[in-house]
Amino acid sequence: MISYQLLGLILIPLIGSIFALTARNDKNYSTSNVYNVSILTLIANIGLILHIFTQCNLNEDGMQLIEHFKWIDYPFVEICLGVDIFALLIILSVNLSFLIGELCLNRNTERSKTLITSELLFIGLLNGYFVAADVLSFYIFFVASGTPLMILISTYGSQRKKTVLIRFSLYNLIGALLLLVSILMMYDSQSRNILLSEAGKLNFKGGTEYFVWLSIFFAFISRLPIWPFHYWISSINSSLKNPLVFLVGNLIPLIGLYGFIRFWPNTVPETIAIHAPIFEIICIVTMLFIALVSLSHKDIRYKLFAYTTVYYLLYLTSIFLPTDVLKLNIGYSLFSYIIIITVLSFLISHIEYQKKELGIYGTGGILCYMPRTSKFLSLFILAGIGLPVTSLFWNNFIIISEIFNYNLVLGIMVMLSVFIVALSLLEELYKLKDKSNASSACVLGADLSNLHFTVYLGCLLVLFLSFFKPLWFIF
Amino acid sequence: MIQIIASLIVLSFIGLIKQRMKYDRLISWLMFFAATVLFMEFATNAVNLHKESFSFLWNTSKIGDITIDFSPRLSEHRLLLPLFFLSLVTILHNNIFRYEEKKSAFNSIILLNFTSLSLLTCSENYVQMITAVFATDILGYLILKDVDSSRRYVVYNFFADMCLFMVLALICGKLQSLSLENLPEYEQIGRHKDFVGLMFLIAIFVKMGFFMFQSYLLDLSAARLQRMSAVNLLFAPLTGILVLLKLHCLVEVSDLAAPLLKVISILTMIFGLMNFIIIDNLKKKLVYLNMGFLGLLLLMLENHNLRWNWQHSFYYSIVYFINLLFLKMYLYQNHETKVSEMLNGRGTNSFILKTTLVQFILIANIFISLIYRISMKQEQTWIFISGAILICAITTVLNHIYQSPNSRKLENLTPNPLRPISLLIMISLLIYTSVEMHAYTIYNILFILCFILLCWCPLLTKIRAIYEIEWFQKEDLSKSFFFYTLVTPFMYLSRTLWLMVDFIFSEKIITAGLTGLHKIGISIFFKINRKSYAACFTFIVIGIICFLLSFYRRVLP
């Protein structure tokens, strides 16, 4: 009997997106309806993910629950979907983070129909990307997942959105073309669509092998903020004020990271794997560079971007290590990390929104009048930088210990970047808390609402439970 | 044991619930009594050496299981019993002196901190250990509340934690084991031993607020004295000692580590002593006094192969009580921070100020007896001399207070019927300890006489002039040192990278260059799509190139 559960993960958000798109253009009507549709869609998707978790064997490493779908007869193309625990964890965290986003989003946002439609489309495509088990579907979802962000940048971007959009499309176009060429070469060598796990077994020789693999990796790098080509993504993150769009922007590097996780450990041929130090050096230079630059930046969004980049690259560095034991640790860590950056981006947006509403010039000291926000921001920043209340903490310990085991200098550089970026966030937190910087003494009613407070408390609970047992939701 | 730890955690969480003021007082006292019962049970277990313990499987990883262990042996009881006792005393004084608005919350943090320290002391794997260290730091941050005092506290401790995290991650990676039992093997198989030894010591120095790393403890003076005092003796610096005792093997892995530890301990003691006399601010004075005491403690520990015994527990408890007496002095002087402004108490409040002096005399007597015993046992005279110098320094400050020229009458203290309880407990504890330690010999009586004489010595009174030298009072060498050697270069580097590399190189040259190329490509594409001879020619050339490439495909790599 064919199972359609993984297909359901892709289709539910897409159906939700169609519902949102067909809502009437009446502002009041569409706003509440569109939001409710998206929340229900996400709840349904999370329920399905949890159901899939119960059907998986937690001790098995490879792909599970594989679903085949015949697509074209000539040339014969069969699409294959499958998941492992790592992919499911990422899917769950992404869906959870968007649910948090939906619940905490200010419903007075302009063009909410476009926002929610694009968001659901993005979730559907991202789920598809995470469950793709063959190269063709992997490619399709890889390329398609960039589209919603383009729509969102063009709708919600700042004055520089044209430049940002050109750069984003340029890098993505180059990446997509490279991936397409390499995937066509893979197809050509076997005369069929191949599974991701089979990619390393293909018999390419010499320059062709280098071309195929380097094209794949450059495609993934195009989604990651790698120095000196990081400017487009930092511009996106700094210019997008809407927290949901900011979240979408922050999840774009996850696509590149996931690509490396799927292709590098155990899959990449030995001739390519020996060049891992080059990638490691690129990662370290970027981490250090962005961490150092964040020290001088005044914009808290840039600091958050620097934090996310450093951590994404920390995970990426651990993927290049000559060991495959870290995949699940990366998964557990990423689960907490994605939730933390979601909450942080929403809290920062809340502060900026209040600043705008109250007509305050600077945000310095604003947290003195927002005790709930202050507590949550402090807790989540501390959790993000290493407070032992999440699975991020002890899994990062194991990841970093492996990096140290491999190379001392690499380990020191990673720790230095993590420390600098944490310092930068802490500095900003204290600026927000410092009473001597406070601009106004009559900031009343600017704190978090009860709903937001409950949602963030729930997030804290989820993180805390994941600290004690990463897969606590499976009984 | 599990019941005790679980009860402590439950008790702490009860205390964290928001209460009305009158219920808060009641709950605060109930917490104290409940904690006392738990302490007695804990002490009974410790004295009878009941081997009750627990170990839970927390998580699994490829390099070993992560467990939560609590199986105290005698060596751990030597640490935990005094810590539990000191936590109880802190709670008692919080209840008596009413210096916190939310007493039960303060008590909760103290109890949680003790639980965290217990788990740190009994940890058998790296993850439990580092988790406990982080937890203690966070609890310290929660107790401080104040933004000014906690800013540097957070940064310094985070830096120390990161150093420790790095060292433990490195060891764990090399040994491929999470168990602390295998730590001694690192000396044989490990690499980068000097790096490990030095980073470990830096983490310890920062945590303990040693010489050149004391800035964050000095910043605590912005907080209330009772909070500062608790953090100073029960939180971060104590974590430093516990971690050092737990990982003492790491001092032996590098040839540089042991001498460095000795040198910095001596410098800390001397620097602390000097500044204790020089600085006018009582809160900062206490930080320097603790530096002096901790420096001596570390020297004694190093002399004892970094192994803790009952005498060290005694020593630490006495240091705590000396701090407590200074706290009382501060409260009885109506929260006056400057020693130069303090009044001699010959007008009002003279009784409580004189009883405080009696307590100082008794505690100094116990301290000198203890230090004499330690120096005899370890056959090191310098320990006794150092201890005596520390007591002399305390006498000098007491001289400055009790021989103060300020004759303005003190305001009457707010009535507090519970205050005599503190006095009674303290006096009875001190007398009991004096008897237990046989601190009533002729030498002790001579010492007490000397102490009293020094407290009245006019020569020492003249040192008060040093409080008027502004440079001494304002300058913090370590702060300036780090600012000019670390913070400023980092900020310059950061700004240069941002403006020169990020903005001009990345944005203006590379990214804009690529965008320009993209635009040129598109314009060429538009041009060759026009109906012109040049466009036709370009298409023909591209076609020929494609044909040639497909024809000679085999030749291509």
Secondary-structure topology with pairs:
The complex is a heterodimer of chains A (475) and B (557).
Chain A: H1 5-21, H2 27-55, E1 64-72, E2 77-83, H3 85-104, H4 112-131, H5 135-144, H6 147-156, H7 161-190, H8 206-221, H9 231-239, H10 243-263, H11 270-273, H12 276-296, H13 300-319, H14 327-358, H15 371-385, H16 391-406, H17 408-433, H18 450-468
Antiparallel strand pairs in A: 1-2
Chain B: H1 2-16, H2 21-47, E1 54-61, E2 64-70, H3 74-97, H4 103-121, H5 126-144, H6 147-175, H7 186-189, H8 193-208, H9 215-219, H10 225-234, H11 236-246, H12 249-253, H13 257-278, H14 282-303, H15 310-332, H16 350-378, H17 381-402, H18 419-436, H19 442-456, H20 458-461, H21 470-474, H22 477-528, H23 533-551
Antiparallel strand pairs in B: 1-2
Helix pairs in contact in B: 1-2, 1-4, 2-3, 2-4, 3-4, 3-15, 4-5, 5-6, 6-8, 8-11, 8-13, 10-11, 10-14, 10-15, 13-14, 13-17, 14-15, 14-17, 15-16, 16-17, 16-18, 16-19, 17-19
Structural class of chain A: mainly alpha
Alpha-carbon distance between the two ends of chain A? 26 Å
Order of helices and strands of chain B: HHEEHHHHHHHHHHHHHHHHHHHHH
Tally of DSSP β-strands of chain A: 2
Describe, in plain words, how this protein is organized in 3D.
By secondary structure, chain A is mainly α. Chain A has helices spanning 5-21, 27-55, 85-104, 112-131, 135-144, 147-156, 161-190, 206-221, 231-239, 243-263, 270-273, 276-296, 300-319, 327-358, 371-385, 391-406, 408-433, 450-468; strands spanning 64-72, 77-83. In chain A, a hairpin with a 4-residue loop joins strand 1 and strand 2 (77-83). In chain A, helix 4 packs antiparallel against helix 6 and helix 5 (135-144) packs antiparallel against helix 7 (161-190). The longest helix of chain A is centred in the last third of the chain and has 32 residues, at 327-358. Chain A starts with a helix and ends in a 7-residue tail after the last helix. With 557 residues, chain B is an all-alpha fold. Chain B has a two-stranded antiparallel ribbon. In chain B, helix 2 (21-47) packs antiparallel against helix 3 (74-97) and helix 10 packs parallel to helix 11. The mean pLDDT of chain B is 85. The interface between A and B is large, with 54 and 51 residues.
